[in-house]
Structure formats: structure tokens, C-alpha cells
Amino acid sequence: MPTGALERPEAWALLCEWTAGESLRRHALAVEAVMRAAAAQHGAPAHEHERFALAGLLHDADYERWPDEHPKRIVAWLEQRGEPELARAIAAHYTKWGAPRDTLLARALLACDELTGFVVACSRVRPDGFATLEPKSVVKRLKDAGFAKGVERAEVDAGIAELGVERDAHIAMVIDALRAHPELLARA
Question: pTM above 0.90?
């Protein structure tokens, strides 16, 4: 078993090994950026910001290759790698497992994952992308069940509730975090 804390180059290499699709890699990068912002926004110590980002980067690492086992493979890999906190947070983001979200990291991952994908989808239907995207536009789209059908609205709501934040403020944080990374908007 490797020793020392997991670092981004190793996490990125694993993601690339297990995930060939550009779209899912972009989602991972987007959630990574949002989780780093969430760590800062919600008072995680500075030395934990990169851990939040790693959870965002790896949360769906096994989905493309083993969709029926997701997130079993990445959770097992992280546990073997000596990263139980990351493993627990990623296990908890998959709500069907019923794993407790008893840390800020786990609650933040649930609150950021589906919403990040949804906000990216909202930006893609706007001629100016993120430039003028506001929380009210995202909320309006959330009410439209025909828009971004794959996004589980119940998980968006549960994540915001469990994180204990005001919905519009959380959506604004996600928008701002993504606005700082326009390269994540390019279509795969």
C-alpha cells in the first residue's frame, strides 16, 4: 500500500486510466473546482481544500468503466490507498447506499456534484455561457423536469439541505467557481 497522502497527479492518472470519456473527465474537473471553492466557502481549514478537490475529482472515477458497481471500485481503491475519509465521502455521495454524510466533506460533495452538472448544462444553453448566469435562472430550470433529465433534483435539494445553506447562495457559489474555469464549458 502506498504511503503518504494522495496527491492530485496520482488521482488524475487514476481518473484518466478508468475514464476515457472527455465528458465525464470534464465533469470531474468541474466538481473538483466547485469542491475547492466549497471548502473555502464553508470554513474548511486551508490544508483541507485540496482534499475537497480530490473528492470532487474522483467521485465518479469508476462510473464509466463499471457503472453497475459505482462507486464501489473507487471507494475500495481509496480505502486500499489509505484514504478512508475520501472513501467515506464518495460512498456517501451515492445516496442509494445510505452511507452517512457525517462530515463537511461528505455533505459538500453531495451538495456540489449534481448541481455542478446542472449549472454547466444551464450555461450551455445560454449564448453568453456563465457571463450573465444567475441563481434565479438555475432555479427556474430546476423546475423544468424536461431540462437536463439525468440530474436528480432530489439529490440537489438534499445536498443543499444537508449542507445547511441558502439555495440561491449555494448556486451562486457554484456559478462563481465554474465561471473562474471557462475551459470546463467546452463541449466534449
Answer: yes
